[in-house]
Design brief:
By secondary structure, the chain is of the alpha+beta class. It has two domains: 83 residues, Phosphorylase Kinase, domain 1 (2-Layer Sandwich), CATH 3.30.200.20; 211 residues, Aminoglycoside phosphotransferase (APH), C-terminal lobe (Aminoglycoside 3'-phosphotransferase, Chain: A, domain 2). Helix content is 43%, strand content 14%. It contains eleven helices and ten strands. Strands 1-2-3-5-4 form a five-stranded antiparallel beta sheet, sandwiched between helices. Strands 6-8-9 form a three-stranded antiparallel beta sheet. A hairpin with a 2-residue loop joins strand 4 and strand 5. The radius of gyration is 20 Å and the shape is globular. The chain starts with a helix and ends with a helix.
Length: 301
């Protein structure tokens, strides 16, 4: 692959001394070019649609809290994005060393970053499947598809069917649409001691902005989930307990939905269901379905 990287850089007239492959990057290959650039390359088995969404995001947005876009293209069948490298380290690497005051200032920056992204209404750069503006239809279809899958696996889905019919039209009637970053965990926030920069935009959507809380809540509840092996030893769940309350103080609109708790349960249910399918963890399905039924029954009004 490094030969391809050299060829791409040559086609872009980028002179360089060294190329270093990043240890992170779960869905694409990422290379550091000296201290100047980052080259992200779509793997042959990678998700081309998401990659093109990320390219579209960089071409469309002009924020000062994202890396500067340099170029993108396709070289001998390899699709890539080239951007300037930002200084700093991931928040995962540094969070345990920050004072409460510093953490508060960082969360304030994160709130402002998410506000600016969520305000964006221009979604022409997104492929249609990532434009999810009819919430009731989107989530009813999600239940229908997964009930069929679970039925084929032999699970009782009567409670899920009842929930989809009775609750989804109520709890998802409310919506405030915007671009949702959809990957707000600490491996994607780079901190230089002063400024926070956001990276990686291949999961962006256009949907109701409260969906932004899915990954944030997932990280806070299980901080090591998105951490690389190198930083896991520094991750203490107690250090993450105040993030959501501080974020709510700075960005109240994100939480101002009548049925927010119930919506978050639905978001989390399908997120975990997707992980179970992907990683072939069917032995967890019974507990997941029963837990969802128990929690949603308590919220029925």
């Amino acid at each position: 692959m490094k030969e391809k990287v050299h060829a791409i850089l040559k086609s872009e007239n980028i002179e360089h001394n060294y190329i270093e492959k990043s240890k992170v990057g779960f869905s694409n290959l990422v290379y550091f070019i000296d201290d100047k650039y980052v080259l992200k390359v779509l793997e042959p088995e990678g998700n081309k649609i998401k990659f093109m969404n990320e390219i579209g995001f960089y071409k469309t947005m002009n924020f000062d809290f994202i890396p500067n876009y340099v170029s993108s293209g396709e070289h001998e069948g390899t699709i890539y994005i080239l951007m300037e490298r930002v200084s700093g380290v991931s928040l995962y690497e540094i969070w345990h060393t920050l004072s409460s005051e510093k953490r508060g200032a960082v969360v304030e920056q994160i709130a402002n970053i998410l506000k600016e992204i969520n305000k964006v209404q221009d979604h022409k750069f997104l492929q249609q499947k990532y434009i999810r503006d009819d919430l009731v239809d989107i989530w009813k279809n999600a239940f229908t598809r997964n009930i069929e899958i679970l039925n084929q696996k032999g699970y009782n889905t009567l409670n899920l069917l009842k929930y989809a019919e009775e609750r989804v039209p109520i709890i998802f009637k409310e919506k405030r649409l915007g671009i949702v970053y959809n990957d707000a965990h600490f491996d994607n926030f780079i901190y230089d001691g002063d400024k926070v920069t956001l990276i990686d935009f291949d999961r962006v959507l256009f949907t109701s902005i409260d969906y932004e809380l899915l990954i944030l809540n997932t990280m806070v509840n299980n901080p090591k989930k998105f951490a690389s092996e190198d930083v896991e030893p520094f991750v203490n769940p107690k250090d993450y307990m105040d993030i959501i309350p501080k974020l709510k103080k700075e960005y109240g609109e994100l939480f101002n939905f009548e049925y927010l708790d119930e919506r978050l349960l639905v978001y989390s249910f399908f997120y975990m269901l997707g992980n179970i399918y992907t990683f072939k963890l069917d032995h967890l399905l019974t507990d997941l379905i029963e837990d969802f039924s128990r929690k949603t029954n308590l919220l029925f009004v």
